[in-house]
Amino acid sequence: MVPSEVMRRRVPTGATKRAARAYSSNMKRAIRWLLVGLSLLIVTTVAAAVWLWNDPASAFRLAMVAGQTNAGLTERTTEIDGRIWRFLDSEAPHPRNALVLHGLGTSAEAMMTIAPILRETHRVVIPDLPGFGEHAVHGTMAHDATFYIDAIESFRAAQNLGEVDLIGTSMGGAFAAAYAAKYPQHVRRMVLLSPAGVTPPHVNEFMRRVIDGEIPLDIHDDASFAEVLRLNFPSPPPMPEPIRVEFVARAVARRDAFLRIIEDLRPFLINGVEPLMQDIDAPALVLYGKLDQLTDPSMLAIWRFGLPKMEGEVLDGAGHVLLYDKPNEVAKRMREFLR
Structure pTM? Predict the structure, then answer.
């Protein structure tokens, strides 16, 4: 190769220079639009955050929808005897159905984590029970144990669930046991998490307060909500302020109905399951947390004595809400028991 040819290859032509300038200009324009887009995204995100912070109801609703989506659940409604039931449904095409019952003062969302646990084996259905969540109280009728057990049966039949695996926590655990006693033909197995309904050998602080006439779970302001969290969790979960504000507001709005339900259920939740145990044939897994301040772990002994087909355990380091404190341990035991 001669020197002149080398120089021709190394020295850019006019066309090459123009192409380089055009490329540089396009890159600058692209970077500028990218920065504009990022700025708009940041502004939009900040605006959305400010809006949600000042609109707790929308923040609460979005948080619930996000939780449902993450758990693989769909929100559905159905009408039974003129009443609207709202429920969460995994809609999984499995031959086994899990009917899940939430605890006192909560809603279907409190049990959402059951769906991923049983994703491979069960269709999971979680209703808002009457008077809780988005399910209104049923008029002036007494909301006692008989009312709830028959309401649960009406829901099961309306959804054509057939034989179910029952899962309940706290109040829902007591309902599950009572349902299994009254409708044994519809229950294959049941999992009871921190269940109420039996006399505790050890009376803890919460129970003493109830005996003295207090209602420790009555939420009427932010301080009482903090107390409810303390009773339920050894280490209460972090909660964004808008969600906390809306939770308290919803509790206060429904307070009269809640207090009425507590009075209707008080005898049952104290020891109403014990006389029914002789009629329970379904195998049961009963779990408590060692740090439970509501349903004392000493209650496991009552279940062990009353249920012939029972497995039970007290989980170290867990409070009342086992699905929050010990999710992996609960998931493992639940899958093994319901397989």
Answer: 0.83
